Amino acid sequence: MPRAELLEQIYTIVDQIPEGRITTYGRIAAMTEGATPRMVGTAMRKLPTGHTLPWHRVISATRRVADHGGAARQLEKLREEGVVPDVKGRLPAHLMWP
């Protein structure tokens, strides 16, 4: 499948994540026709300026925010939605989507 089509699938899935819920790079990849978790992460990093996708709701399989330049902003946005990590930095399993 061409890369542009996979990106479109990834972005369509991310756009469906409800407020106050989270999902992983791997879960999104599994919903596509051939993307890998790494491809999903790359797609999140390369979102165009001004996009409205809820990128902050996509986390690592460990239920932690991945270590990247936007991690503090991601945690801030999640907290605004009531998604708060535990003392070890893990986000609540019961908020996983789908």
From TrEMBL:
CDD domains: ATase. Keywords: DNA damage. This is MGMT family protein. Signal peptide: none annotated. GO terms for biological process: DNA repair. It comes from Vreelandella salicampi. It comes from the Bacteria. GO terms for molecular function: catalytic activity. Residues 8-83 form the Methylated-DNA-[protein]-cysteine S-methyltransferase DNA binding domain. InterPro entries: ATL_DNA_repair (IPR052520), MethylDNA_cys_MeTrfase_DNA-bd (IPR014048), MethylDNA_cys_MeTrfase_DNAb (IPR036217), WH-like_DNA-bd_sf (IPR036388). Transmembrane segments: none annotated. Coiled coil: none annotated.
